[in-house]
Protein backbone atom coordinates (compact mmCIF):
# COMPACT_ATOMS: atom_id res chain seq x y z
CA UNK A 1 0.00 0.00 0.00
CA UNK A 2 1.36 3.42 -0.88
CA UNK A 3 0.13 6.97 -0.42
CA UNK A 4 0.82 9.47 -3.19
CA UNK A 5 0.22 13.20 -2.58
CA UNK A 6 -0.99 15.72 -5.12
CA UNK A 7 -0.73 15.15 -8.85
CA UNK A 8 1.12 11.84 -8.45
CA UNK A 9 -1.83 10.36 -6.61
CA UNK A 10 -4.28 11.47 -9.30
CA UNK A 11 -2.05 10.26 -12.14
CA UNK A 12 -1.62 6.87 -10.53
CA UNK A 13 -5.33 6.59 -9.88
CA UNK A 14 -6.25 7.42 -13.46
CA UNK A 15 -3.72 5.20 -15.24
CA UNK A 16 -3.91 2.23 -12.93
CA UNK A 17 -7.71 2.05 -12.94
CA UNK A 18 -7.95 2.70 -16.68
CA UNK A 19 -5.86 -0.36 -17.39
CA UNK A 20 -8.05 -2.51 -15.18
CA UNK A 21 -11.19 -1.16 -16.81
CA UNK A 22 -12.42 0.38 -13.60
CA UNK A 23 -13.10 4.01 -12.63
CA UNK A 24 -12.06 5.79 -9.48
CA UNK A 25 -12.81 9.29 -8.25
CA UNK A 26 -9.43 11.14 -8.22
CA UNK A 27 -10.74 13.98 -6.02
CA UNK A 28 -11.14 11.91 -2.85
CA UNK A 29 -8.92 13.69 -0.28
CA UNK A 30 -6.10 11.48 0.93
CA UNK A 31 -7.15 8.60 -1.35
CA UNK A 32 -5.25 5.33 -0.87
CA UNK A 33 -3.77 3.73 -3.97
CA UNK A 34 -3.65 -0.01 -3.32
CA UNK A 35 -1.17 -2.23 -5.09
CA UNK A 36 -3.43 -5.15 -6.05
CA UNK A 37 -0.63 -7.05 -7.77
CA UNK A 38 1.32 -7.27 -4.54
CA UNK A 39 -1.69 -8.55 -2.62
CA UNK A 40 -2.43 -11.13 -5.31
CA UNK A 41 1.20 -12.27 -5.33
CA UNK A 42 1.11 -12.77 -1.57
CA UNK A 43 -2.15 -14.70 -1.88
CA UNK A 44 -0.77 -16.90 -4.67
CA UNK A 45 2.41 -17.61 -2.74
CA UNK A 46 0.30 -18.50 0.26
CA UNK A 47 -1.81 -20.91 -1.80
CA UNK A 48 1.29 -22.49 -3.28
CA UNK A 49 2.80 -22.94 0.14
CA UNK A 50 5.87 -20.81 -0.64
CA UNK A 51 5.35 -18.58 2.42
CA UNK A 52 4.66 -19.64 5.95
CA UNK A 53 2.06 -17.97 8.12
CA UNK A 54 4.79 -16.22 10.10
CA UNK A 55 6.31 -14.78 6.92
CA UNK A 56 2.93 -13.58 5.69
CA UNK A 57 2.36 -11.76 8.99
CA UNK A 58 5.81 -10.19 8.71
CA UNK A 59 5.02 -8.98 5.18
CA UNK A 60 1.70 -7.49 6.28
CA UNK A 61 3.41 -5.81 9.26
CA UNK A 62 6.08 -4.28 7.02
CA UNK A 63 3.42 -3.08 4.57
CA UNK A 64 1.48 -1.46 7.41
CA UNK A 65 4.61 0.30 8.70
CA UNK A 66 5.48 1.66 5.25
CA UNK A 67 1.93 2.91 4.77
CA UNK A 68 1.95 4.59 8.19
CA UNK A 69 5.21 6.31 7.35
CA UNK A 70 3.72 7.75 4.17
CA UNK A 71 0.68 9.23 5.93
CA UNK A 72 2.44 12.51 6.96
CA UNK A 73 3.68 12.94 3.37
CA UNK A 74 0.16 12.49 2.05
CA UNK A 75 -1.26 14.98 4.60
CA UNK A 76 1.36 17.60 3.71
CA UNK A 77 0.69 17.07 -0.01
CA UNK A 78 -3.06 17.36 0.53
CA UNK A 79 -2.67 20.63 2.47
CA UNK A 80 -0.17 22.08 -0.02
CA UNK A 81 -2.46 21.25 -2.94
CA UNK A 82 -5.39 23.08 -1.37
CA UNK A 83 -3.67 26.02 0.33
CA UNK A 84 -0.71 26.71 -1.95
CA UNK A 85 1.48 27.33 1.09
CA UNK A 86 4.52 25.53 -0.30
CA UNK A 87 6.07 28.52 -2.15
CA UNK A 88 5.53 30.81 0.84
CA UNK A 89 7.15 28.38 3.27
CA UNK A 90 10.08 27.76 0.94
CA UNK A 91 10.66 31.49 0.59
CA UNK A 92 10.33 32.00 4.36
CA UNK A 93 12.52 29.12 5.52
CA UNK A 94 15.13 28.97 2.75
CA UNK A 95 16.06 32.64 2.47
CA UNK A 96 19.58 33.97 2.14
CA UNK A 97 21.40 35.24 5.20
CA UNK A 98 24.26 37.77 5.13
CA UNK A 99 27.85 36.84 5.76
CA UNK A 100 28.88 37.23 9.38
CA UNK A 101 25.57 36.11 10.90
CA UNK A 102 26.18 35.12 14.51
CA UNK A 103 24.40 34.31 17.77
CA UNK A 104 23.24 37.91 18.21
CA UNK A 105 20.74 37.26 15.43
CA UNK A 106 18.94 34.63 17.53
CA UNK A 107 17.73 37.16 20.12
CA UNK A 108 14.54 37.86 18.16
CA UNK A 109 13.67 34.16 17.85
CA UNK A 110 14.46 33.65 21.54
CA UNK A 111 12.06 36.47 22.43
CA UNK A 112 9.34 34.92 20.29
CA UNK A 113 9.75 31.53 21.96
CA UNK A 114 9.67 33.22 25.37
CA UNK A 115 6.32 34.74 24.37
CA UNK A 116 5.04 31.32 23.28
CA UNK A 117 6.10 29.87 26.63
CA UNK A 118 4.24 32.66 28.41
CA UNK A 119 1.13 31.97 26.33
CA UNK A 120 1.14 28.22 27.04
CA UNK A 121 1.78 28.56 30.78
CA UNK A 122 -0.72 31.43 30.97
CA UNK A 123 -3.49 29.25 29.54
CA UNK A 124 -2.73 26.61 32.16
CA UNK A 125 -2.87 29.18 34.98
CA UNK A 126 -6.08 30.70 33.64
CA UNK A 127 -7.83 27.34 34.14
CA UNK A 128 -7.50 27.70 37.92
CA UNK A 129 -7.20 31.45 38.50
CA UNK A 130 -10.25 33.46 39.61
CA UNK A 131 -10.04 37.22 38.91
CA UNK A 132 -11.97 38.35 41.96
CA UNK A 133 -10.90 40.48 44.90
CA UNK A 134 -11.90 37.90 47.49
CA UNK A 135 -10.66 34.75 45.70
CA UNK A 136 -7.67 35.81 43.58
CA UNK A 137 -5.03 35.22 46.26
CA UNK A 138 -6.56 31.93 47.43
CA UNK A 139 -6.68 30.67 43.82
CA UNK A 140 -2.94 31.38 43.53
CA UNK A 141 -2.35 29.41 46.72
CA UNK A 142 -4.46 26.59 45.32
CA UNK A 143 -2.31 26.52 42.15
CA UNK A 144 0.90 26.41 44.20
CA UNK A 145 -0.21 23.84 46.80
CA UNK A 146 -2.86 21.58 45.27
CA UNK A 147 -2.64 21.57 41.45
CA UNK A 148 -0.28 19.02 39.91
CA UNK A 149 2.88 20.83 38.69
CA UNK A 150 1.13 24.12 39.46
CA UNK A 151 4.08 25.62 41.30
CA UNK A 152 6.40 24.66 38.43
CA UNK A 153 4.16 26.18 35.76
CA UNK A 154 3.61 29.35 37.78
CA UNK A 155 7.36 29.65 38.32
CA UNK A 156 7.94 29.25 34.57
CA UNK A 157 5.37 31.99 33.91
CA UNK A 158 6.76 34.30 36.56
CA UNK A 159 10.42 34.00 35.60
CA UNK A 160 9.57 33.72 31.92
CA UNK A 161 8.19 37.26 32.08
CA UNK A 162 11.57 38.50 33.30
CA UNK A 163 13.40 36.49 30.63
CA UNK A 164 11.15 37.93 27.92
CA UNK A 165 11.78 41.49 29.08
CA UNK A 166 15.55 40.96 29.07
CA UNK A 167 15.53 39.31 25.65
CA UNK A 168 13.36 41.91 23.95
CA UNK A 169 15.60 44.77 25.13
CA UNK A 170 18.73 42.87 24.07
CA UNK A 171 17.12 42.29 20.67
CA UNK A 172 16.28 45.98 20.38
CA UNK A 173 19.86 46.91 21.29
CA UNK A 174 21.25 44.53 18.68
CA UNK A 175 19.00 46.02 15.98
CA UNK A 176 20.03 49.55 16.95
CA UNK A 177 23.79 48.98 17.10
CA UNK A 178 23.78 46.91 13.91
CA UNK A 179 21.88 49.67 12.08
CA UNK A 180 19.01 47.34 11.16
CA UNK A 181 16.47 50.14 11.68
CA UNK A 182 17.55 52.06 8.57
CA UNK A 183 16.02 52.03 5.10
CA UNK A 184 14.11 49.97 4.09
CA UNK A 185 13.39 48.51 7.55
CA UNK A 186 11.95 51.58 9.31
CA UNK A 187 8.46 50.06 9.55
CA UNK A 188 9.83 46.90 11.16
CA UNK A 189 11.63 49.08 13.73
CA UNK A 190 8.37 50.88 14.55
CA UNK A 191 6.58 47.54 14.98
CA UNK A 192 9.37 46.41 17.31
CA UNK A 193 9.00 49.52 19.46
CA UNK A 194 5.24 48.94 19.72
CA UNK A 195 5.94 45.33 20.72
CA UNK A 196 8.17 46.54 23.55
CA UNK A 197 5.44 48.89 24.82
CA UNK A 198 2.89 46.05 24.70
CA UNK A 199 5.30 43.75 26.56
CA UNK A 200 5.70 46.37 29.30
CA UNK A 201 1.92 46.70 29.47
CA UNK A 202 1.52 42.95 29.77
CA UNK A 203 4.07 42.89 32.60
CA UNK A 204 2.23 45.69 34.43
CA UNK A 205 -1.21 44.11 34.15
CA UNK A 206 0.08 40.67 35.13
CA UNK A 207 1.86 41.92 38.24
CA UNK A 208 -1.43 42.73 40.00
CA UNK A 209 -3.06 39.34 39.45
CA UNK A 210 -1.67 37.52 42.55
CA UNK A 211 -3.34 40.33 44.54
CA UNK A 212 -1.09 40.21 47.57
CA UNK A 213 0.18 43.27 49.43
CA UNK A 214 3.28 43.70 47.32
CA UNK A 215 1.53 43.42 43.94
CA UNK A 216 -1.34 45.67 45.03
CA UNK A 217 0.75 48.58 46.29
CA UNK A 218 3.29 48.28 43.48
CA UNK A 219 0.45 48.55 40.95
CA UNK A 220 -0.97 51.55 42.82
CA UNK A 221 2.39 53.30 42.49
CA UNK A 222 2.70 52.38 38.80
CA UNK A 223 -0.79 53.64 37.95
CA UNK A 224 -0.19 56.88 39.86
CA UNK A 225 2.99 57.40 37.82
CA UNK A 226 0.92 56.96 34.66
CA UNK A 227 -1.58 59.48 36.01
CA UNK A 228 1.16 62.11 36.27
CA UNK A 229 1.74 62.01 32.51
CA UNK A 230 0.71 65.02 30.42
CA UNK A 231 -2.76 65.22 28.80
CA UNK A 232 -3.57 61.50 28.46
CA UNK A 233 -2.05 60.43 31.81
CA UNK A 234 -5.14 60.92 34.01
CA UNK A 235 -7.43 59.31 31.44
CA UNK A 236 -5.11 56.32 31.11
CA UNK A 237 -5.01 55.87 34.89
CA UNK A 238 -8.83 56.00 35.13
CA UNK A 239 -9.05 53.43 32.33
CA UNK A 240 -6.66 51.06 34.10
CA UNK A 241 -8.33 51.44 37.49
CA UNK A 242 -11.84 51.22 36.11
CA UNK A 243 -12.67 54.45 37.94
CA UNK A 244 -11.16 57.12 40.15
CA UNK A 245 -9.92 54.61 42.74
CA UNK A 246 -8.88 50.98 42.89
CA UNK A 247 -11.95 48.81 43.24
CA UNK A 248 -13.44 45.40 42.52
CA UNK A 249 -13.45 46.03 38.77
CA UNK A 250 -9.74 46.84 38.65
CA UNK A 251 -8.49 43.27 38.89
CA UNK A 252 -10.98 41.97 36.32
CA UNK A 253 -9.97 44.76 33.94
CA UNK A 254 -6.28 43.98 34.40
CA UNK A 255 -7.02 40.29 33.84
CA UNK A 256 -8.91 40.96 30.59
CA UNK A 257 -6.14 43.22 29.28
CA UNK A 258 -3.45 40.75 30.33
CA UNK A 259 -5.14 37.64 28.92
CA UNK A 260 -7.03 38.86 25.84
CA UNK A 261 -6.16 42.33 24.55
CA UNK A 262 -2.37 42.52 24.81
CA UNK A 263 -1.50 38.91 23.77
CA UNK A 264 -3.72 39.22 20.70
CA UNK A 265 -2.03 42.44 19.63
CA UNK A 266 1.41 40.97 20.28
CA UNK A 267 0.65 37.86 18.21
CA UNK A 268 -0.62 39.95 15.28
CA UNK A 269 2.39 42.28 15.36
CA UNK A 270 4.82 39.35 15.62
CA UNK A 271 3.27 37.97 12.42
CA UNK A 272 3.76 41.31 10.66
CA UNK A 273 7.29 41.57 12.08
CA UNK A 274 8.27 38.13 10.77
CA UNK A 275 6.74 38.85 7.37
CA UNK A 276 8.87 41.99 6.98
CA UNK A 277 11.98 40.14 8.15
CA UNK A 278 11.40 37.44 5.52
CA UNK A 279 10.62 40.01 2.82
CA UNK A 280 13.44 42.49 3.50
CA UNK A 281 16.04 40.13 4.92
CA UNK A 282 18.52 40.80 7.69
CA UNK A 283 21.44 43.19 7.72
CA UNK A 284 25.08 42.19 7.90
CA UNK A 285 27.13 43.14 10.98
CA UNK A 286 28.50 46.71 10.78
CA UNK A 287 32.12 45.56 10.94
CA UNK A 288 31.78 43.71 7.61
CA UNK A 289 31.98 45.53 4.30
CA UNK A 290 30.77 44.27 0.95
CA UNK A 291 33.53 42.78 -1.15
CA UNK A 292 33.79 44.31 -4.60
CA UNK A 293 34.49 42.22 -7.65
CA UNK A 294 37.87 42.61 -9.29
CA UNK A 295 36.31 44.00 -12.46
CA UNK A 296 34.61 46.81 -10.53
CA UNK A 297 37.78 47.59 -8.59
CA UNK A 298 39.77 47.90 -11.84
CA UNK A 299 37.18 50.26 -13.31
CA UNK A 300 37.36 52.52 -10.22
CA UNK A 301 41.17 52.64 -10.46
Outline the fold blueprint.
Elements: H1 6-19, H2 36-48, H3 53-83, H4 86-93, H5 107-126, H6 136-145, H7 150-177, H8 186-207, H9 213-227, H10 233-241, H11 248-280, H12 294-300
Helix pairs in contact: 5-7, 6-7, 7-8, 8-11, 9-10
Account of the 3D structure:
By secondary structure, this protein is mostly helical. The protein folds into two domains: 88 residues, no CATH class; 178 residues, Cytochrome Bc1 Complex, Chain C, CATH 1.20.810. Helices cover 70% and strands 0% of the residues. It has twelve helices and no strands. α5 runs antiparallel to α7 and α9 packs antiparallel against α10. The longest helix has 33 residues. It is flat and about 85 Å long. The N and C termini lie far apart (68 Å). The N terminus is likely disordered.
Strand content: under 5%
In the residues, how many domains can be counted? 2
| Helical residue percent band | 55-70%
The beta-strand count equals: 0
Principal-axes geometry comes out as flat
What structural class results from the helix and strand content? mainly alpha
Question: Could you name the CATH topology of the largest domain?
Answer: Cytochrome Bc1 Complex, Chain C
Rg from Cα? 30 Å
Would you state the CATH class of the largest domain? Mainly Alpha
Second CATH tier, the architecture of the largest domain: Up-down Bundle
What kind of sheet is the major sheet? none
Low-confidence segments: 1-35
| CATH superfamily heading of the largest domain | Cytochrome Bc1 Complex, Chain C
